[in-house]
Amino acid sequence: MSDPLSDVIALLRPRTVFSKGITGAGRWGVRYSAFGHPSFCAVLEGRCRLAVDGQPETTLEAGDFLLLPATPAFEMSGFEPVTPERLEPRVGPLPSGEVRHGRRGGRPDVRMLGGYFLFDSPDSALLVSLLPPVVHLRGVERLSVFVRLVGEEARERRHGRDLVLTRLMEVLLIEALRSTPADETPPGLLRGLGDARLAPALRQMHAHPARPWTIAQLAKVAGLSRSSFFDRFERTVGVPPMAYLLAWRMAVARDLLRAGDLAVGEVAERVGYGSTSTFSTAFRRHVGEPPSRYAASLRASP
């Protein structure tokens, strides 16, 4: 049976990891503008304050793990009043060593390992929208181990580094997301997978996107009436069932076109369309250009 969470992470294609040590001492505070790419942080010692735009303020403590799948603007500081230094992550060279905030000498009040990576999927915005905007976990030792491995691999230029980092980030993402209690997440894929009725329907959609699914068939898989299934799915996942299925089919189609191994007609069959013209119309409406042109533009890209 298909695992929707693994499917989404695989299609996101995490890559290009940058990792660094971060410490803070005394009176300090920084405010990062919105970055858009995913970022992560593991607190190794001490504690600090975190305020992510649009989210409740919280405290990060030793053993905590933080994941921001789309990294909005956020502020991080010690506990003394301070006017935060404004930083623009998209401008300027990346730091080559540990980043220190506040007092330069002496033992830091907090020590963290943080970094960011990229999603190499053309559907990253769609797929990220299925995930919680903030993942804050406490006391999950496995995550700290993975973050340390990512940091070590990112610093060392050993053979196979890129592949190892890609696999580590895939495991790190899955571990973080499956450790998040479903009832604490906003509407999206995680909450849907945490619903015992909806999870089988989601797995079926992911495992068999080519099937001509109807609301009645999916409701039967979930053991619900059509109306109950529709309302519960939309409330829990955040979109109607057929809209979710269409988005997943288009994500799979874009990935197949990106690979370049199949003709457009074969891709259409793989994602549940009986004719190339019907698929092309749906793809153009969803993506903004016909599949043949989309595939050609990918081949022309460096």
Give a structural overview.
The protein is of the alpha+beta class. The chain folds into two domains: 4-180, Jelly Rolls, CATH 2.60.120.280; 189-300, Orthogonal Bundle (Arc Repressor Mutant, subunit A), CATH 1.10.10. Helix content is 43%, strand content 21%. Strands 1, 2, 3, 4, 5, 6, 7, 8, 9 and 10 form a ten-stranded mixed sheet that branches. Helix 1 (4-12) packs antiparallel against helix 4 and helix 7 packs across helix 8 (226-237). The radius of gyration is 21 Å and the shape is globular. The protein starts with a helix and ends with a helix. The mean pLDDT is 89.
- N/C terminus separation: 36 Å
Low-confidence stretches are: none
Q: Structural class of the secondary structure composition?
A: alpha+beta
C-alpha Rg, in Å?
21 Å
Please, how many helices? 12
Helix content: 40-55%
CATH class label of the largest domain: Mainly Beta
Can you tell me the number of structural domains? Answer: 2
Structural shape: globular
By CATH, the superfamily of the largest domain comes out as Regulatory protein AraC
Q: What name is given to the CATH topology of the largest domain?
A: Jelly Rolls
What is the helix/strand order?
HEEEEEEEEEHEHHHHHHHHHH
Main sheet summary: 10 strands, mixed
Percentage of residues in strands: 15-25%
Q: Determine the mean pLDDT.
A: 89
Q: What is the number of strand segments? A: 10
Question: In the CATH classification, which architecture of the largest domain applies?
Answer: Sandwich
